UniProtKB/TrEMBL annotation:
The gene is nnrD. InterPro entries: Carbohydrate_kinase_pred_CS, CARKD, Nnr, Ribokinase-like, YjeF_N_dom, YjeF_N_dom_sf. Signal peptide: none annotated. It comes from Salininema proteolyticum. The lineage of its organism: Bacteria, Bacillati, Actinomycetota, Actinomycetes, Glycomycetales. It comes from the Bacteria. (6S)-NADPHX binds at A252, G305, H355, D419. AMP binds at K389, G390, H391, R392, T393, G418. This is ADP-dependent (S)-NAD(P)H-hydrate dehydratase.
Length: 479
């Protein structure tokens, strides 16, 4: 798991570590890491460092200092390095001196043009969201072969991942000490490109309790997706139940079933009008038309394609009465938004999987730009794990933990893709995984499945996701 810390925690850790080091040590470590990534990129894209043109964009703070010291190092290796002040008039004196000594030059904003590599050191963790118009106009004149953001792309909200107005769009971001929210959530994460984390020695001073987000890694998912042991039978692996579909939405049950079949449960039960189609497509699923005769399960999924009529409401009531871990998706979310009594007094774990419109129905207003806080607010209010769908799906647990999903592709924005996600999720819950981890694992594997299904530009639909989910599970299990 990679932890993500907000600016205050980073500053606290930096000051603790700096107290025992000669002044400027951390900046030199940052500059050395930045130089390495920059040099590697120059070699990769332009064949070498010597003679390549590098432009340093600076502002008034230490972010520009990092860029200037890294630029001085690149100038020492023969790159033609220029620096331009994009924001304000105050400059980082130490960095300026180092660059001048190394043979770098300072140019006026009118003279910027194309450069092989541009280092964006306008603002870092001291940046307020939204750059002044003068800075934006200066940035517009910059043309880059490759843009590398120093710490974060300038202009973003570092702690929320919002991108206000014009922010720098980088192909690479070199960050120091730890990940910050802007790297993993919201539109800012789209502006970062590939993230390179440089160890500057502050890790030991970062307190776990100050972390605001966690990013699951492949090894976490591999550990969470239970594998059967010698003592297992189909029941001990967990039985998942799916209550889905209606004559109006007959496809949703098949897609949810396909998602569940890729999960760790030992058996799947199905209740709904499409029970025959479900068995014909998935003969291992035990299916009945009515929820009353469905049998016992360790976790229920309700909602995909059920509609919101009286029959769907009755089915949902039945599911909630079972008091087992339950996923509410799609129409079930609309129903609980309409009938708040449905969740009153509930004790068994609940996972809700809203997209933004469903979130608005449940919460009363749409998610804010700070999606992690929005998901957490709904999770606390309803005492349920909330999987807030979107480009970087957020999972918030009412216990306060929040996960940012690192996988996925916009190709997943296709009808029925949420049904397969919900199916996989109920299988993970049935296997005994807690709600937060089950939701985080489902989002991770679903995102990876989307990447696989859409690889090499292939058009992907939800029908492709069942097989792709199996490939995703296999791939996280392959060391
Ligand atoms: N603190 C440390 O120990 C370390 C910091 N490092 C670097 O230092 C950076 C932070 O430096 P600073 O704290 O100096 O902050 P920044 O360099 O991010 O920017 C601060 C300056 O920019 C101005 N500013 C910010 N946003 C603005 C806006 N939207 N419009 C107009 N002016 C704006 C501020 O008023 C201030 O003068 C980090 O991101 C990192 O790059 C690294 O050298 C590693 C060590
Ligand atoms: N722009 C995007 N980038 C990445 N993933 C996306 C994007 N838009 C939607 N998704 C993902 O696609 C899925 C869509 O689910 P949902 O909206 O429930 O669709 P449906 O109801 O048709 O099944 C979710 O997992 C969501 O996170
Ligand atoms: K920056």
């Amino acid at each position: 798991m990679r932890e993500v810390w907000p600016v205050t925690a980073v500053r606290k850790a930096e000051s603790t570590v700096m107290a025992s080091l000669p002044e400027g040590t951390l900046m030199q470590r940052a500059a050395a890491g930045l130089e390495k990534v920059a040099a590697d990129l120059l070699v990769k894209h332009f064949g070498g460092v010597y003679g390549r043109s590098v432009l340093l964009l600076t502002g008034m703070g230490d972010n520009g200092g990092d860029a200037l010291f890294a630029g001085a190092r690149l100038a020492g290796r023969g790159a033609a390095v220029r620096a331009v002040q994009i924001l304000g008039s105050r400059r980082h004196e130490g960095g300026h001196k180092a660059l001048r000594m190394a043979g770098g030059r300072f140019i006026s904003p009118e003279d910027v043009g194309y450069h092989d590599l541009v280092l964006d050191g306008v603002t870092g963790i001291g940046g307020r969201p939204g750059l002044p118009i003068e800075a934006v106009n200066r940035l517009r004149k910059v043309r880059a072969g490759v843009t590398v953001a120093v710490d974060v792309p300038s202009g973003v909200n570092v702690d929320t991942g919002e991108a206000v107005g014009q922010a720098v769009h980088a192909e690479h971001t070199v960050t120091f000490g730890c990940l910050k929210p802007a790297h993993v959530t919201g539109p800012a994460s789209e502006l970062c490109g590939e993230i390179h984390l440089v160890d500057i020695g502050i890790g030991r001073a970062l307190r776990h309790g100050d972390s605001v987000l966690s990013v699951p890694e492949e090894s976490d998912i591999a550990e969470w997706v239970r594998r059967p042991g010698p003592a297992d039978d189909k029941y001990t692996r967990g039985v998942a139940g799916i209550a889905a579909g209606s004559t109006r939405y007959p496809g949703a049950p098949l897609l949810a079933a396909a998602g569940a079949q890729a999960g760790p449960a030992g058996m799947i039960r199905f209740a709904g009008d499409q029970w025959r189609q479900v068995v014909s497509r998935h003969p291992s699923i035990v299916a009945t038309p009515g929820i009353e005769e469905a049998g016992r399960v360790q976790a229920w999924l309700a909602g995909p394609g059920t509609g919101t009529g009286p029959r769907a409401l009755k089915t949902l009531e039945h599911v909630l009465e079972a008091e087992v871990p339950t996923v509410l998706d799609a129409d079930a979310l609309t129903l609980v938004a309409k009938h708040s009594r449905l969740l009153a007094g509930r004790r068994a774990p609940l996972v809700l999987t809203p997209h933004d419109r469903e979130y608005e129905r449940l919460y009363g207003s749409p998610p804010e730009g700070d999606r992690a806080s929005s998901a957490l607010a709904l999770a606390s209010r309803l005492n349920a794990v909330v999987l807030l769908k979107g480009h970087r799906t957020i999972v918030a647990d009412p216990d306060g933990s929040v996960y940012a999903n690192p996988t996925g592709t916009p190709d997943l924005a296709t009808a029925g893709s949420g049904d397969t996600l919900a199916g996989l999720l109920v299988s993970l819950l049935a296997s005994g995984l807690g709600g937060g981890r089950a939701a985080a694992a489902a989002a991770y594997l679903h995102g990876l499945a989307g990447e696989f299904a859409a690889r090499d530009g292939r058009p992907a639909t939800a029908e492709d996701l069942g097989d792709a989910l199996r490939d995703a599970v296999a791939s996280v299990r392959t060391p």
